[in-house]
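ok so I'm stuck.
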Amino acid sequence: MKNQSSADLLIAARKHSGLTQTQMARIAKTSQSAIAAYEAGHREPTVPVLQRMLAATGHNLVIAFEADQNIYRISDLARDIRKTSKKNSQRRIRLVLEFLREANENSVDVSQALSLRFVVEPEPTGDRRFDALLAAITEDFCVRSDVTPPSWVFADTRFLEEAWWVSELRSARVQALINTPASYRRRGVMIDRHDLVSM
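replied:
not stuck anymore, here's the structure
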């Protein structure tokens, strides 16, 4: 049963077992008024208390977690880049720009956004250029937010030996030479900061 409150769980378990609140209270070694308060949502049981009350109905408490599908992480981006053909660089770049746009639009709590989006090191994409780009994005986002970047962004595999001019247009290269952010430039990823938000 997903997203149910402890009150919902207690009511469902008690009714499924055919117990009254009084019978359940006796088995769980508590009072009927306590059961009523928990079921009404006036009191919130601790996990051990909830386990004990559910055990009184013949049920176990199972706690699970799942990824929040509303948060697109840098590791998710790496996976999607890896799945996209190396021949389709435009699609790979488009994925990056969509990630940047969404991350910039939806970062209300910066520290939470950073921990959710960037702290887990992404798997290699199969293309060192994009591995460096993902590190540059992460470091740049952290620096602009006055947060220490995660250590994975400084790995040797996140730096290129030769410059990668993301745009092949001569005019774009001139702009990139002038406007590439420091975290990108030092990794050899040459891209105009304006292109990071407008491409």
